[in-house]
Amino acid sequence: MTQVDSSKKELNTVITNVKLSNENPATNTLLDEYAFYSDTTDNKYIHLLDKIDHLLEKGEITQASKVVERIPVYAIPAQQLKHYYNSTALCAYLNKEEDNSLSIIQQYELNDSIGLSRDTAAQLLKCLILLSKDDYPKLYTTFTTFKTSFQLPIDRASTIDSLIEVGKNLKLKSAKKAAFFSAFIPGTGQMYTGHFEEGLVNFGLNLATLGFTALCIYKGYYATGILIGYTLFQRFYTGGLRRADKLTSDYNNSLTIPLKQNLKERLIQLNLQSK
């Protein structure tokens, strides 16, 4: 399976499980658009909500987001506001705009007339957003409320609880510490991430080129010392800083990515339709 196929499969799974309520679906997006322009009532914008759903089902996230921008919130009937805010939040999430998506849900979930706090789609999406932001403490609190409110199966809920607890206790490396170590003593940033041999090599190269630069200047070969020795030293020094940052990122990703993927799959596979 290619990466594109895998991403599309994941998108379809999210769309299927975080399902937006829609009472009057049109056959396709063209009919949605036709219905919108031919409808002369105050409810014409409902057809654009239908179009958003169909675009998301086809994986056309960018187009769905453009349709969201066409809808003035004041034109949405009260009974369709939950559908509108779910659509808006879901589009933002799929566009990697986690902060925007979370703010949409948080802004309106306390409004009882909209009911996002009691909506499984909105609360599941909130869990997915917090997971993508690596905010495990808030994810734990949100999921605890979520599983209690919607009476999730105990076995599934306990597994997700355990994974969230693992995320809360992950011992990740600090990119700032790695950068500080590398800046103060070249090579120690790599050692901090567990790459001791690479750190020693980088330390030796920095020491050798700096020593060569000093020796050339001491002997009066200023041009050679600056153009060759110091240039090489700068390359090894800055290269060590970048390498330490990458190794830190790789180390953290090796811990967080499998965990997040496992958690995401378990969250979106919850059988919410039966609750």
Task: Give an account of the 3D structure.
The protein is 72% helix and 0% strand. By secondary structure, the chain is mostly helical. It folds into two domains: 3-133, Alpha Horseshoe (Serine Threonine Protein Phosphatase 5, Tetratricopeptide repeat); 175-256. Helix 3 (46-57) packs antiparallel against helix 4 (61-69) and helix 8 runs antiparallel to helix 9. It starts with a helix and ends in a 7-residue tail after the last helix.
Compact description:
It is built from 13 helices and no strands. With 275 residues, it is an all-alpha fold.
Element string (H = helix, E = strand):
HHHHHHHHHHHHH
Mean pLDDT: 84
Structural class, by secondary structure, is mainly alpha
Binned strand content: under 5%
For the record, the CATH architecture of the largest domain stands as Alpha Horseshoe
Residues in helices, as a percent range: over 70%
Query: Which fold name is given in CATH as the topology of the largest domain?
Result: Serine Threonine Protein Phosphatase 5, Tetratricopeptide repeat
Low-confidence stretches: 19-26
Between the first and last Cα atoms, what is the distance in angstroms? Answer: 33 Å
The tally of beta strands, per DSSP, is 0
> How many domains in all?
2
